[in-house]
Amino acid sequence: MEIDALVALVALVRPPVPPVDATGDWTDVQRVPTELPDDYRQLIGVYGTGAFDRFLWLLSPFSSGKYLSLSFQAKTVHNAHRELEAQYGEPQRYGFFPDEGGLLPFALTDNGDYIYWRTVGMPNDWEVVVEAAREPEYEVFACSASSFLLDILTKRIICNIFPDGFPSDKPQFVPRRSQ
């Protein structure tokens, strides 16, 4: 079923040829679970690192740029939320990876919103959680990364955290420029 979502996503949004930061040793991915959802592995293999409609950026464990690196963003988010909790006593609705069942980012937006997996259960069963950039607001979607992207880009689901202009009527994917 998730492969069908990726096939439909590719039919909707042409991937780059070749994709940027799309390959590497999945068993050597540091600071993230070696078991990531199958559809995400395939999604990265097809699209690599880049942005849908120049707004929603895919993170890759193979990114040569740290800001689009899955492991860098996982560490950054974890540390930022720990600091909020310690410094301001701000309770967190979710834990953050590597905490058990914590949120692990796989995408982010130009507005600073994060798109996570909630790492509960088997990786292929992880749900998607979107966190607003400047408020403790979350939206939860019971689907895979590929299904989430397809449903957001086709407007089958609406994420109230995202701006009204996203997505466009003809979504595109722009790969990250090499540095």
Structure annotation, total helices: 4
The average pLDDT score comes to 90
Gross morphology is: globular
Quote the distance from N terminus to C terminus.
Answer: 36 Å
CATH C-level label: Alpha Beta
Strand content: 15-25%
At the fold tier of CATH, the topology name is SMI1/KNR4-like
The major β-sheet equals: 7 strands, antiparallel
Strand order of the largest sheet: 6-5-4-3-2-1-7
- CATH architecture identity: 3-Layer(aba) Sandwich
Helix content: 25-40%
Q: Compute the number of strand runs.
A: 7
Radius of gyration: 15 Å
Low-confidence stretches: none
Order of helices and strands: HHEEHEEEEHE
Structural class: alpha+beta
How many domains comprise the coordinates?
Answer: 1
TL;DR?
The protein has 179 residues and is of the alpha+beta class. 27% of the residues lie in helices and 17% in strands. The model has no long low-confidence stretch (mean pLDDT 90).
Task: Name the features.
179 residues; alpha+beta; SMI1/KNR4-like; seven-stranded antiparallel β-sheet; 7 strands; 17% strand
What does this structure look like?
There is one protein chain. The protein has 179 residues and is an alpha+beta fold. It has a single domain (2-24, 35-161), classed as SMI1/KNR4-like, CATH 3.40.1580. The protein is 27% helix and 17% strand. The protein has four helices and seven strands, in the order H-H-E-E-H-E-E-E-E-H-E. The mean pLDDT is 90.
